[in-house]
Specification:
Blueprint lengths: L16 H18 L6 E2 L2 E2 L9 H19 L16 H14 L7 H10 L9 E10 L6 H15 L8 H9 L10 E5 L6 H8 L9 E2 L4 E3 L2 E11 L6 H31 L2 E2 L13
Antiparallel strand pairs: 1-2, 1-8, 3-4, 3-7, 5-7, 6-7
Helix pairs in contact: 4-8
């Protein structure tokens, strides 16, 4: 809710229009600087105290918790709250809400055909015993860095290393000069790594893609991870074993069940958002119960 804006009283005596404009601008600046943070509400219940503004992630989590609490109240599972600010949930209230969600959110179970299709489409994901001897040069993306300039810098180094006349020692030299990883002191050498030993994006690129069998040497393109851009070189490879479908069937079923649960929970929360009046925080919602 916005407080009504007061109108300054007229000042007797003449003054230049420029001075009036300056005074007005200064007054607006002070008002802006001292304005209270925007409040956030779910169905009229404030998510934080006046004058405070939690960060977006915390505020969004509070909004979803309050939506679930209000849903439990509507279902007669929790008593009504008489205050104007969302209450802190205790352990007992959380257990009630979790039980409610378990009852209301239906999680479809994957069938044999679905599990089989997933196995055929993602065989590299289930390889066991595979490992690569890898070294890399990391161009870290840090706050304030010019990403475009960093990319050009990384591409230039990659171009030099993929030339036919590149000296074998040049990778270690550039790693020592350019890499933002502690392994720069060892020429970028990461040693022998498996899919579980590196960032998921790197594991996906090196182990879980069909083109991951491109072989030894410098990878012909930059690899992007949450840490930045990597130039990757594979020095050696241990070929893994592809397990039969029957050996990983339960693992696949558990994975698909977890994904199905996540989708069902997302749909449930989307419906709650669509049915509620949410102010001061953006949440993804549906205004129809027919959510696909």
């Amino acid at each position: 809710m916005n407080a009504p804006t007061s109108t300054p009283a007229a000042v007797s005596g003449g003054c230049g229009s420029g001075a009036c404009q300056c005074a007005s601008t200064a007054g607006d600046a002070v008002a802006t600087a001292t304005a209270a943070p925007t409040m956030a509400y779910v169905n009229g219940i404030a998510l934080h105290a006046p004058g405070q503004r939690p960060d977006t992630a915390t505020l969004r989590e509070s909004a979803y918790s309050e939506l679930l609490r209000q849903q439990a109240v509507l279902a007669g599972l929790l008593p009504r709250h008489t205050g104007l600010t969302a209450p802190e949930l205790g352990e007992a209230e959380r257990k009630v809400i979790e039980a409610m969600v378990d009852r209301e959110v239906v999680t479809p179970q994957p069938g044999e055909e679905e599990c089989g299709r997933y196995y055929e489409a993602n065989k590299p994901q289930f390889m066991v015993g595979q490992a690569l001897h890898v070294r890399h040069i990391l161009f870290a993306v840090t706050p304030g860095v010019n990403v475009h300039a960093l990319t050009v810098h990384a591409e230039t180094a990659l171009l030099e290393l993929t030339r036919k006349d590149a000296h074998p020692d040049r990778f270690a030299q550039l790693a020592a000069e350019l890499s933002n990883c502690p392994t720069s002191a060892q020429g970028g050498d990461l040693g022998w790594i498996g899919p579980d030993d590196c960032a998921p994006e790197l594991a996906n690129e090196l182990f879980h893609q069909k083109h991951s069998q491109w072989g030894m040497g410098v990878h012909p393109r930059l690899t992007h991870t949450r840490f930045g851009f990597h130039i990757i070189e594979v020095l050696n490879r241990r070929v893994g074993k592809q397990p039969a479908y029957e050996e990983v069937r339960e693992r696949i079923a558990a994975l698909l069940t977890m994904q199905s649960r996540a989708r069902a929970l997302h749909q449930y929360m989307t419906l709650l958002v669509g049915q509620a009046l949410v102010e001061g925080i953006a949440l993804e919602g549906a205004d129809s119960p027919l959510v696909q």
